[in-house]
Design goal:
Helix content: 40-55%
Oligomer: single chain
Radius of gyration: 19 Å
Distance between the termini: 14 Å
Strand content: 5-15%
Order of helices and strands: HHHEHHEHHHEHEHEHEHEH
Number of domains: 1
């Protein structure tokens, strides 16, 4: 039986964490940006206005476009302002890569960008009304970065980054699985092999491949990981039109998906976030009758 603590974590949409979290350091540059961020949110407290899609609209656009998915959550915003996060230390090249993904996003991109629309379309006052102002503290940086990178001027749709979560605001697994239902080859990039085994057991008519990564600081092994993926494709002679890569690797997943979906590789890649953790444990709970 799953613990009450884990039940609460799942209901709140929390994510899996490594046993030893990274101790977050606050640099001088970060402290300066935090001041700038708070000033921005003080003078511009209104909800952000842009083409923010719902989870259902996000799924529909992904299926229609056939494009890869890159998600920007609070972790990516923390890296972009120079802060460590519990699963990834700040890295200048990582931050530069994340910034380039935002700058390069256009109608002809091979990927779609997702943001936490359900939070960013709220005002500062609404975010501060949360317990201990938690939502404001979490999303103030992304609000500032939205302004800094002029994301609203792009006039492009932004998908819902939490579309894959379970129980709160995400989609049912039966809807999410339509993203890979027409593909026979699936590569899972994750630190925990049990999720690979779980999906490969559920979809026995498909061929699954597993690429293991560390539970933190994935960006440090990104080149090796990308090479492993392309090696699998080449060694098994996989048709790229019959392949999807599903990644859960923190901010480094953004860079991996960006690299894979470019014309040189032409591999469909989805940053799945906490899909594996949330839906795996949800399925275990339902099977054991823990949740009503």
């Amino acid at each position: 039986m799953i613990s009450i603590y884990k039940q609460d974590n799942l209901r709140q949409g929390r994510s899996e964490r490594p046993q030893e979290l990274i101790k977050i350091k606050k640099t001088f540059s970060f402290r300066f940006i935090r001041i700038v961020t708070d000033l921005y949110n003080f003078f511009y407290p209104e909800a952000l206005k842009y083409d923010a899609l719902t989870p259902e609209e996000s799924l529909k656009l992904l299926l229609k476009s056939g494009k890869s998915l890159i998600r920007f959550g609070n972790g990516e915003s923390e890296i972009l302002v120079g802060l460590d996060m519990p699963t990834q230390i700040y890295n200048r090249e990582l931050a530069k890569g994340l910034a380039n993904i935002i700058k390069d996003y256009n109608a002809d991109s091979n990927y779609l960008l997702a943001l936490a629309n359900w939070n960013l379309t709220k005002s500062v006052r609404e975010l501060k009304d949360s317990h201990k102002k938690r939502k404001y503290r979490m999303w103030r940086y992304m609000r500032y970065l939205f302004f800094r990178f002029r994301m609203g001027e792009k006039k492009l749709p932004f998908l819902e980054t939490d579309m894959f979560r379970d129980l709160i605001r995400g989609l049912d697994k039966s809807k999410i699985e339509t993203l890979w239902s027409n593909f026979n080859h699936i590569i899972i990039v994750h630190n925990n092999e049990k999720y690979f085994k779980w999906l490969s057991e559920e979809y026995r008519d498909k061929k699954f491949y597993y690429v293991k990564i560390p539970d933190k600081n994935f960006f440090s092994v990104l080149p090796e990981t990308q090479k492993k993926i392309t090696t699998i494709v080449n060694e098994y002679n996989i048709d790229r039109n019959d392949l999807v890569v599903m990644v859960s690797a923190g901010p480094g997943a953004n860079i991996l998906c960006y690299n894979l979906c470019q014309k040189a590789e032409n591999i469909l890649c989805y940053d799945m976030g906490n899909f594996f953790y949330n839906h795996f444990h949800s399925s275990q709970q339902h099977e054991s009758g823990v949740l009503n």
